[in-house]
Fold each of these.
Amino acid sequence: REWAADPARPVRTGPGGERLTPRGSAAVHRATVRGRSMPWSTAQRVVAGELWREMSGLLSRQMVELEARNTELARTNEDLDSFAHAAAHDLKEPLRGISNAAAFIVEDAGAVLDDTSLRRLTTVRRLAERMDGLLDSLLHFSRLGQVGLEREELSLDEVVDDALLVAGGRLAEQGVTVVRPAPLPWVRADRERLREVLENLLVNAAKYAADEGTGERQVWVEAVPVAEPGGEDGKGGGPVTAVVVRDNGIGIPPGQHEDVLQLFRRLHRREERGGGSGVGLAVVKRIVERHGGRLWLESPAVAPDGGGGPGDDPGPGDDRRPDGDRGPDGGGPGTAVWFTLGATDTPRLPGAGA
Ligand SMILES: Nc1ncnc2c1ncn2[C@@H]1O[C@H](COP(=O)(O)OP(=O)(O)OP(=O)(O)O)[C@@H](O)[C@H]1O
Ligand SMILES: [Mg+2]
């Protein structure tokens, strides 16, 4: 080791007493490092080699096990989908039988039946109809897990237009205006499925619009770059485009964000708010995940540029957006549904039927 001066030399006493001075001499002092590392012995090498082999063996065994478990999980999921599909399909036929039988009874013996019995038979038919609807939803949901995607380059604006052919009526009925602050980008996705996603989200914006409030009822459709969190394998993390559908409606309590994504889960009674069976968001989540993307909710909803968030009162002349438009203000706390669409389809195991 070479030092600029002897590190062991005591501090010199000057006229003003003891003080640190730049080392005067700067004569290079050579210090000897005592205690050198010794070469490994043969026995140590053998032990280290063994440890290395053990560790890499353990790792590769765990990799194989993990892969096998993933395959098994995928197969189990697929089995569940096939089971749900088959069960829903097979249940529909006897259900039709029940409904028809009830109808025949009313037809043949309606004249001799009392009012209570007639009412009960009508209930049987109504319930059978509802169950048929639920089975259809289940069939659709399980099918989404089985069929492949047909990805193509799509103009998101065009897909929103398509979705509005269906959702537009409901939005107009509720006085909700659709705002697209900027042209939407092109995405690589399955056209029909993506339309279904947007249709569901736009219809929800209409169904769950705020009941009162001075603000205009609005739903915003925007594309926002977000940082994708790194995967567990340490990969990923690059910026991706997220699509966000944000309204200024009644909002979803934060504790129920997970719940509403479940199949058949509603926060309202069946017939409230235009009815529904609680399938929409579960279907949306499934489609997004089939694309390799992810979905998350935000409520109260906040505008991505920090301006014009719901719940605040911008007052007249407020002009926080470059184009002079405001985000969803007034009304309720609002809900934002965010989703990304992965770049590639997640391949299903061979044998996944139609
Ligand atoms: N934009 C929204 N604002 C407020 N609440 C919402 C919104 N979207 C969904 N929800 C809540 O989440 C629940 C589940 O939504 P989902 O779309 O899955 O089902 P649904 O609208 O009740 O019925 P379906 O979509 O099957 O006709 C809804 O019942 C509602 O309570
Ligand atoms: Mg819905």
Amino acid sequence: MSSGKPLLVVLGATGTQGGSVLAHFLSLSSSPYALRGVTRSPTSSKAAALAARGVEMVAGDFDDPTSLDTAFKGASAIYSVTDYWNPMADPSQHQKAAAAGQSIGLFIGEYETQQNKNIIDAPAGVDGLERFVFSSLPDTNKLSGGKYTHIFQFDSKGKAEEYGRVTYPKLWEKTSVFYAPFYLENYFGPLGALFRPKLNKSTGSLTLAIAEPLASTPLPWFTAAGDTGELVHALLQVAPGKKLIGIRELLSPRRLAELFAEALKKDIEFVDSNPGPNSGNPGLSKGLLDLVGWCVEFGYDGAKVDKNIVTPENLGVPVALGSVKEWFERQEWEQVLQSD
Ligand SMILES: NC(=O)c1ccc[n+]([C@@H]2O[C@H](COP(=O)([O-])OP(=O)(O)OC[C@H]3O[C@@H](n4cnc5c(N)ncnc54)[C@H](OP(=O)(O)O)[C@@H]3O)[C@@H](O)[C@H]2O)c1
């Protein structure tokens, strides 16, 4: 690069995690890296906005290995993240899953694993690559000995991580793994509806209807848009080989809701919603119930059986993430509470 700085290539540049990585380095008075973002649509408005801030935006598609070879040329460091959820909403993927006789969850999981293999294969051949940061999650099926079989969005990434470690030991010497916790941003969306208290419009107080064991299961939380960049920068500053869970706080949905109520200065009451989360979609419900069981037994990150997991305070460089309550205080909740 003409700046003379080493080049950081960021996948998912227009998305939440990758966007956070770029926003973090753009916010520094002097970024240690020249920045390149990868997107399927370099002319989109998000890509153009990043280009206007000095990011070199290039075309690349996880389904097209040749495009990744080109996108990674000259990289000193790569941040890799793939997208399980948007293909789930794509009707053509549902048709393909039906034609393959697979559940949509498993089908998209296998698709995401293949995308990650394409990504891993490409940097294995990059001359001069010093660091690879791979956004992953644990292979819950394998680690639980087949007890939890429906957490496809975790296993898809964990399987690819294992592929990289076994297939490319030299690349894996330069690799650190990043586990994203539950996004606090989920509190705004449909998944958040499971955790988010509802506003009683006549009394102004909050109620959360939630069942055990979900209500009291400790879950790790962070803001994906706000924290990913700082955490990835920290990983790039320490020796590779780390597996970082990027946690702000470990909180049960019940405690999370209490903090939400404190931030909004509202009263809250809890109602037992037994028989538990039931979306009417058996696949999703099984996945959610497996996820709760997994978190109770193994921890979200599998840290009860994987002793390689580190938290930000044990990384060896200062990481200053704010509190969950602060994040709640900074958001605008009126519209989402009124629309429930
Ligand atoms: N929600 C949670 O609580 C949570 C927790 C932990 C982990 N996660 C994981 O986070 C991942 C999603 O990350 P995110 O939130 O950053 O996603 P996001 O905001 O939805 O963005 C997706 C990004 O991926 C890019 N992308 C998608 N398909 C692509 C392809 N075929 N080729 C190239 N680029 C592609 C998109 O770029 P363009 O459209 O510009 O090409 C976009 O930048 C999921 O896999 C999920 O499992 C989520």
Amino acid sequence: MRDLDLFEAIARRRRAVRAFLPQCVDRALIERLVAAATTTPSSCNTQPWTLHITSGMALDRLRVALIDAVSSGVPPEYEVEAAGRYEGQFRERQIDAAVRLFETQGVDRNDKAARAASMLHNFAFFGAPHAAFLFMPPDGGLREAADCSKFAQTFMLALAAAGLGSCPQASLSGYPSIIRAALRLDNEPGKLLLGMSFGYPDDEDPTALARPPRATTQDVVCFHSD
Ligand SMILES: Cc1cc2nc3c(=O)[nH]c(=O)nc-3n(C[C@H](O)[C@H](O)[C@H](O)COP(=O)(O)O)c2cc1C
């Protein structure tokens, strides 16, 4: 069970990191973690994912362009259909996760300007030195989106195993044309599914205390044996 103990520790260590140290991750380590993520299973082994990783000047250029666009009210436009509104317990969990984050940031939930400022951290990549953009095939559907999401999770667990942190960000996928322009992705035919900041986590930052709880095992599993 030693491997399982280790796996559980890594899975529990992973969290959405919203404050990073400026220190860059070695290119060889990033490549090793991407290689680990390529073990992800996919329907008929299609492996429908493409990852663009940006750092340095390209990331600085993108950060400026995104903050400029979002602060001046440019609306998001998604290449992959955005989810609808959450209802019932899903809405309650969404609010709970947001409130927990706001509490660590000293943001009053009813203060619209403070909420907008909190949201803007997404577009500064929470100070991360690297951002990854995950693309699915141009004609891909739900199946490919699910496969790419699994790839993202394997990558995030590999990052956690290496002592690194990540934040998956649907917010970034609302600005594909800005991302394409800043990263000069003229030859990327795919659809942008997800953005992700990653790097060394700043565990001293108060946002590290925002740990949204999970439903119990009994709430998520039903056993059937007769
Ligand atoms: C597909 C996806 C999109 C997400 N988008 C964002 C985002 O845009 N900004 C953000 O701060 N967190 C984002 N998150 C992080 C979730 O809020 C977070 O995973 C959830 O609240 C559970 O917290 P934990 O990851 O720390 O356990 C996203 C997570 C996923 C899986």
